[in-house]
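Example 3.2
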Amino acid sequence: MTTLTKPSIGLTQFTDFTMKGSAAKTKFVKDIKYQGDYHPIKDYWKALRDGLKKYHEHRLNDTYLLDIVDNALPARQKNYQEAVKAYIKFLKNKNVQWFDPGKANWYCDDLIVRSNPELGLIIDDVPYLIKLYFKGKNERIDKHKCRSALTLLKDSHYTIEHPDSVQHAILNVQKGRLITDDDSTDYHQIALESDAAQFMFIWNRL
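Structure, written as tokens:
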């Protein structure tokens, strides 16, 4: 009898899954299941993702972000530079303060999604838990496509209690667009659980 491994995936992976067509979803899940151990060098955006958190947490200046670009692997520098430029533009003329977003997970039967927001930011007096999305340069990323991910963020279990006024959001970094959640409905919840069930169906068949 084959033992089924319970998957634990990142929110970006889950978001990518929900945006793909049927056939592409199967290949995508297969790649996740057999990708091997995580290694930072394989994580294309890790340096910038970690750097943006440090930038806000320690109130560093924009030079710090430009240094991240200079220190990135040569093949990544162009994309890093474009992302940093767009991020600095996004922050322009905004009053921004950092708060600790904590860690978060979302559970649905055997599936665990690590939904840790990278940033906790109060932007013009509104608190946001922000998940950074770096793949929106050439593909359309809107509220409709992010609906399951936004519902998941809102329904996650957080290690830190946040005020009821907190907004859950996904930042399309390359476009400088903050996509926020609406009030979740039963339909949103059903759609999210349906996506999770489809992921697990494919996972268990591979």
